[in-house]
Structure formats: C-alpha cells, structure tokens
Design goal:
- This protein has 345 residues and is mainly α.
- Helix content is 48%, strand content 2%.
- A two-stranded antiparallel ribbon has the order 1-2.
- The chain is globular.
- It is found in: Secreted.
- InterPro entries: Haem_peroxidase, Haem_peroxidase_sf, Peroxidase_pln, Secretory_peroxidase.
- Its cofactor is Ca(2+); heme b.
- Its EC number is 1.11.1.7.
- Belongs to the peroxidase family. Classical plant (class III) peroxidase subfamily.
Length: 345
Amino acid sequence: MEKYSEIFLLLLPILMSFVVVSLNAGYANAAVFLPPEDKPLVRHYYKKLNTCANVEPFVQHQVKLYWDKDKTITAKLLKLLYADCMVNGCDASVLLTGPNTERNSSKNARLDGYLLIDKIKKVLEIRCPRAVSCADILNLAVRDAVHYAGAPSYPVFLGRRDGVESKAEWIDYPSPSMSWEEGLAYFESKNLDVQDFVTLLGAHTMGQAHCSSFYNRLYDFKGTGKPDPSMKRSVLVKLRDQCPKNSKNDSPVYFTEEYGSNYTFSNKFYTKVLAHESLLRVDQQLSYGGDTGKLVDEYAKSLEQFRRGFALSISRMGGLKVLTGKNGEIRQDCKFTNKNNPNIN
C-alpha cells in the first residue's frame, strides 16, 4: 500500500486536473487512475535499493547529447516504446535480435532508436553493472526525449525487468485505416481507455507517416475509386502531389509540417483533426466519436491540458504487463538475453 500511496501523491496534480477536465467535458470514462497493473513500480527504485542512485541523470545526459544532434530521436523512441508496451507489455522484448523476433519482423522494419538505448546501457553497465533493466532505460529515455521536445518531465516509476523471449507472431498493430471504434477496442484490449487512445495518438504531432499508410484515402477509399470524402480538398491535392498515384516511392510525410519538421511537442495534431486535415483515417475518426471528439476539442483548445494528459497516459502505457520481482532478468546487453549473450561466459 505504501508504494501505491507514493505513486498517487506524485501524480495527484495531474490526476486532479483530469478529474476537472472530465467533469467539464462530460466523458465519464476518461482515465483518472494510474497504470492498470497489479505489480506496482516504484519511484527512485534503484536509488532506494542503492543499486544505481544516479540512473536518471545518467540517462538524461545521454539523451540530451543525442537529441542536440538529432531531434528525430523523440519520435523514434516514442514509436519504439509503443511497439514494446502494446505488443507484449513493457519488457524490452522489442530490443532483442534474432530470427523471428519482434525487432526483425517486417512490421517493425522502420523502428529506430536502438543505438541510443544501447549507448545508454553501455554507460550504465560501467557505472552500475547488471542493475538497470533495458525496459526501464527505454521508459526513462522516452520521458527525457519528449521533455526536450516540449512535453512535461513526468515521474517514471521503475523496477521493470526484461523479458527473455520475443516473437514476431505477437505483433498485432491495428490498421491506420481503422475506425475510431476499432481503435478504441484495440486500446481497451490492452487495458487502456478512451483518454489514453486519444492522448497517445497525439504523439503523431512529432512524427511522419509513409504514403502507403494513407494512400487509399487519396485514391481508393473503401474500394470506391474515389478519395475519402472527409479529407479537406486542399489537403487532398497537396498529398496527391507528395504521394503520386501508382508511384513506387513510399515517401514519408509529416503529420504536422509546422511542428513535425522541428519535432516539437504540440497540440497541433488535434487542430488538424478538427480541420479535417489528418493523414491517417484513424486520426480523423477521432472527431466522430462522442468521447473522442470531446477530448480532441479539449486538447485543441489547450496545450497544457494535452501536456498533462500525455504525462498520465504514457505513464499508464509504461505500466502494462511489466515484469517485476523474480520474473524476467536484467540484461547485460539489450540486444540479447543473458543466456544468448555471446559476451557472457
């Protein structure tokens, strides 16, 4: 109970702000609780155990060095965390290499950010040998990267252990062309809710989508041979120029040019949803659901509400199906389980 109390007190300002928002907007199902996990993580876990007291400054320093040179790392790490937590829980299984692993699946061919995680792990292994899990490193690195991009520096609760297997067959990413109902159902199947669904999609502000992920909206929506009627005409013309019909060039397009190219954390994603300027159908669909539409409107009007919501929802995602206690292991190298690590005798 002490662990739960500590977590609750640290996030209380965020929680209270969303109780107010939820009452004002009228969506009673919005998230106002902590990560849905029966194995609680702990603030300052390594400091309390005296195994790596300065783990957070160590991670923060490495992320800042990388971010100063390459701001795309924010979007890359966010996508990497999503790919890890939403598939088999936050156990760093996506970092494991080898045949038939999540990392080597064609569905994850565009994932990136591995080099920074490996660099951080090497630094920590020098300073705190076999103490800090790759799963915790990934969650900390994401927090710091999004903070440098403009998000709040939310508390990360620690104590995750690393998984010892990874299977490509686990990957169950939903289609970018799904409806809001299908998208919400997917999030709910992972033990997240409507607020997490709408909030975490807002991370698209900083990223890119390839033409193939929204091509059907431009030329053959639902097999009609016509574009998606919900897309703004001026946006359709521009996107068709960037993604020509029958072209084999699967170019990347920024979700929001104004902020995406600078990888700046903003609420522009939501104003584009309201203006019918979204790239992905699932993003545009947010405006059509009752609760999802109210959240989109709330976030579009207030960057601060989105910042607070993001801190809460990414913390909830980071607590999914974590391994703690004697489950899993602390990998010496994030790419290999200790059993398969060629550098361990």
